Amino acid sequence: MAQVTNFFVGANSGEGFRNLFSEMVDIEDTYDFMVLKGGPGVGKNTFMREIGRAMEEAGTAVEYLWCSGDPDSLDGVVLPELRCAVADGTSPHGSVTKGRWTSIIKDEA
Q1: Quick check: 104 and 21 in contact, CB under 8 A?
Q2: CA separation for the pair 58, 65 (Å, rounded)
Q3: pLDDT, tens digit, for every residue of 40-79?
Q4: Residues sharing a CB contact under 8 Å with residue 74, sequence separation 6 or more, in sequence order
Q5: How many other C-beta atoms lie within 10 A of the C-beta of residue 73?
Q6: How high is the pLDDT of residue 105?
Q7: β-strand 84-88 against 74-79: which pairing, if any?
Q8: How far from the centroid of its chain's Cα atoms is residue 35's Cα?
Q9: DSSP code at position 13
């Protein structure tokens, strides 16, 4: 049986919004990091859920990163044993331009 962990990656605090994504994924040690972009309803969340479900069935540890603004929506899925992750790269989650990730891994405050 796969180990499944659920996290809220970011939240509002007395000091403003805090994003903990950089503590969840070590970018220097990650083999694959896929950032999904697209409008509402195109399937980003469904795709991430399916990745997690398939990896759970395969017995791989899965870390689900849930959106603090919409707890039914995923911000990302991390597969630590495989050193890979997939995350929502659309606003307000982060931004990606020309293959470079920016705000998705830095503190938004």
Answers
A1: yes
A2: 19
A3: 889 999 999 999 999 999 999 999 999 887 888 898 999 9
A4: 45, 48, 49, 52, 64, 65, 66, 67, 88
A5: 15
A6: 41
A7: antiparallel
A8: 9
A9: E
**Amino acid identity at 10:** G
Percentage of the chain beyond pLDDT 90 is 31
C-alpha distance from residue 19 to each of 2, 35, 36, 54 (Å): 26, 16, 18, 27
pTM of the model: 0.74
Q: What's 37-106 look like in SS3?
A: CCCCCCCHHHHHHHHHHHHHHCCCCEEEEECCCCCCCEEEEEEHHHCEEEEECCCCCCCEECCEECCCCC
Both tokens assigned to 46: 């469904």
